[in-house]
Amino acid sequence: MSEREKELFLFDILVAVEKIKDITKNYDNADDLVFSYRDWDSVIREFEIIGEAMKNCIDYGVFEEDKNKRKVVDFRNILIHKYFGIDPEAVLNIAKDNINWLEDIIINRIKKIKKDKRDEIIDYIIDENHYLSFIVKKLENLKNESE
Known about the structure:
This protein is an all-alpha fold. It has 7 helices and no strands. It has helices spanning 8-24, 30-35, 37-59, 67-81, 88-110, 115-128, 133-145.
């Protein structure tokens, strides 16, 4: 894949969602997450990726902008520009309670990509993330569901 296709932003979001879910499954309270600085920084970075990719999805017409998708982009802006004022409880709540909504809309949109192109992209993303078994499994399941 020499040029960055707009559909790749959907997969950026999906991979970031899966990483957030994998990291936060081990945390019941925000203080523990914050004190594990590697996990905290990883979650924040993945949310930043999600927001930037969503912005690109809107800009390139993959999604129409609506209130909920705009909130995803706005959350990214808060994380980047107001990083000293981030509420850890809010971050963990979003990771635990709201991320499945986002995952559902991303998967539904991915399933609308023409099968040949979707399978090519999935194979590419699997190759890029071959060392993350939970990502590979998710993508293989998505590819099998779509057949």
